[in-house]
Amino acid sequence: MAEEAVARVAKAGQAALDAEAEALAALETALREALAVLAKCRDDLTRHEAEEAAAALPSPEALEAALASAGDTLNAAAARRDNAAALLRQDDLVRERTAALRADLEAANARAEEWLRLSDLVGDREGRVFRRFAQGLTLDRLFEHANARLAELKPRYALERGTGGEMMVQVIDNDMGGQVRGLHNLSGGERFLVSLALALGLAEMSTARGVKIESLFIDEEFGALDTASLGQALALLEHLHASGRRVGVISHVEELKERVPVNIEVIPTGRGRSRVEVLVD
Questions:
Q1: Under a CB-based contact definition with an 8 Å cutoff, are residues 194 and 157 in contact?
Q2: pLDDT, averaged in runs of 10, over the chain (281 residues)
Q3: What's the CA gap between 197 and 107, in Å, rounded?
Q4: 117 and 252: one domain?
């Protein structure tokens, strides 16, 4: 066969050789291209098989395991949700109780503030502050009654407690623009009228508290009154007598004998002895 091919080539000449060479080269080029296409196809096939393998459905066992895992995750999430809901409800209850306690605390603080203020006014271990406070209230009440009587006896004056809550009697002079005066600045007759007003006020206070004072005795001092003041004092005492109280006056003023219907006279008889006579008009 080789010899025959050589013989044919020899007969064909150089031109035939060249043509054969070109044909051989073309075949070699075609072979290389075909090999390249084949390699690409094999790569595509390998990649496609890998993708198919990755996209393949899992096995039933894998699916069951995944389902069980998802169920566990769901149950855990539900448990956390329920726990959070319980904590939220508990927080709401705590907030409600806290709000109620805060309201109670504010009310208690308000009450405590009142007690603290009261303690500042009347509280101490020995009770001195409270006694002074109670006495001050009583004195103020006494001044109310006494001023009502003093307005009838001597409207120029009114009584009040000393500044700073002291247990002192101050006299307000209405004729002097409300000037504050002390009792020592009053005349003897004026002091008597103030004392009489206080005595009558005390009697009225006692009556208001259920202690009825039916008898009232006044000792001396009428001689220090001027005619007008004496008339006012006697008119007030007569009004008290007419209202049911027994009023006794101890005095040496002659005018009283004319104004008082019943007189008890003490007449000296000598040797340190006296006799009593009751005179009724």
A1: yes
A2: 59 65 80 83 79 65 82 85 85 89 90 82 70 82 90 89 76 90 83 84 76 72 75 78 77 76 84 85 71
A3: 46
A4: no
Contact 10, 3 (CB under 8 A): no
Tell me the two tokens of residue 51.
């993708």
Contact by Cβ (8 Å): 196, 233: yes
Please state, in angstroms and rounded to a whole number, the distance separating the CA atoms of residues 29 and 21.
Answer: 12
Contact 155, 169 (CB under 8 A): no
The reply to whether 244 and 114 lie within a common domain is no
Mapped onto helix, strand or coil, the DSSP state of residue 50 is helix
Amino acid identity at 22: E
List, as one string, the DSSP characters of 122-134. Answer: H--TTSHHHHHHH
Whether pTM exceeds 0.85 = no
Which whole-number Å values give the CA distances from 220 to 15, 64, 224, 251, in the listed order?
A: 183, 122, 9, 5
Task: Classify residue 40: in a domain, yes or no.
Answer: no
Asked whether residue 85 is assigned to any structural domain, the reply reads: yes
Q: Which domain holds residue 93?
A: 75-122
